[in-house]
User: Which sequence fits this backbone?
DNA sequence: GAACAGGTGAAGT
DNA sequence: ACTTCACCTGTT
């Protein structure tokens, strides 16, 4: 377990293992955390801005204890035992290397709408471009936040996007993805998609529901289920996981990782993308 | 310029 | 059920 203290404008978390800010914020699960000049990550989630960094084995998160308990503790998934997960996933040389390489990854408990919308935009784009489109969405349609002299923006609600017209989304430069975003926003605003219902459904039923939306296929649906609804059995297969499957000696069957296969996926994805593996 | 990118859906076998 | 292709845009 870990200890938490309020230190100035920060909450200090000590005794926490398996937390890497760079691995967590740059493993591809999120698009709104950026490194500042001091190496700290600054971002916005659930309408709150924060600065997060590690120093001398402690994790520091700006804001009050109340904010920490309400927002950041669950968001950063601090209460999960990642030693146990990594032990479970490391069943051979390949998976051992992947879990070691990605040590410190945490599965962010992200907002469902933000996750759905971001991954609709992500198709056939690299991370810099995804980030640009997401930031354009927030700057144009989100609410401004003043954070340490910088102007940040919240992620706009589905209701806000739903009332826009297609041409309003031209500022995103998102091409053929724009109508997908708009129809998803309207499905949420109209109550056609209700996230609270999806939470309580079995993964396969929730999957069917989001697959019915135009422009959402298996990959985006699984990313949404995993990152936005914490359906840890969802296992998104993208080009990097396909590379890992080619390199893996034998068959890479998600079911071998049990109900947390999606977390194993993050280690495998990060390993395939960042470790310089060649197919 | 051409090819390709963290995908999807339609149309063709 | 599997393969091919166009799709908008930004980057080699």
Assistant:
């Amino acid at each position: 377990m870990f200890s938490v203290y309020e230190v100035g404008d920060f909450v200090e978390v000590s005794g926490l293992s398996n937390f890497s800010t760079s691995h967590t914020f740059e493993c591809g699960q999120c698009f709104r955390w950026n490194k500042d000049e001091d190496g700290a990550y600054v971002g916005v989630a659930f309408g709150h801005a924060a600065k997060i960094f590690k120093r001398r084995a402690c994790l520091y998160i700006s804001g009050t204890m109340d904010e920490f308990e309400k927002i950041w503790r669950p968001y950063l998934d601090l209460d999960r035992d990642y030693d146990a997960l990594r032990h479970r996933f490391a069943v051979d040389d390949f998976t051992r290397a992947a879990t070691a390489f990605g040590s410190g990854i945490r599965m962010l408990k992200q907002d469902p709408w933000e996750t759905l919308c971001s991954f609709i935009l992500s198709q056939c784009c690299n991370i810099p471009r995804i980030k640009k489109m997401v930031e354009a969405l927030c700057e144009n349609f989100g609410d401004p936040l003043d954070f340490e002299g910088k102007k940040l923006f919240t992620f706009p609600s589905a209701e806000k996007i739903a009332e826009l017209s297609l041409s309003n989304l031209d500022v995103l430069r998102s091409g053929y993805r724009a109508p997908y975003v708009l129809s998803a926003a309207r499905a949420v605003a109209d109550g056609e998609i209700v996230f609270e219902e999806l939470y309580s459904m079995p993964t396969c039923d929730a999957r069917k529901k989001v697959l019915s939306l135009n422009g959402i296929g298996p990959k985006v649906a699984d990313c949404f289920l995993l990152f936005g609804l914490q359906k840890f059995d969802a296992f998104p297969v993208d080009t990097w996981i396909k590379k890992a499957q080619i390199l893996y000696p034998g068959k890479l069957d998600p079911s071998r990782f049990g109900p947390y296969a999606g977390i194993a996926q993050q280690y495998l994805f990060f390993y395939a993308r960042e470790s310089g593996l060649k197919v």
Summary: Residues 28, 119, 122-127, 129-130, 176-177, 180, 214-220, 223, 236, 238-241, 269, 273 of chain A lie near DNA strand B (CB under 10 Å from a C1'). Chain A has a mean pLDDT of 96. DSSP finds 13 helices and eight strands in chain A.
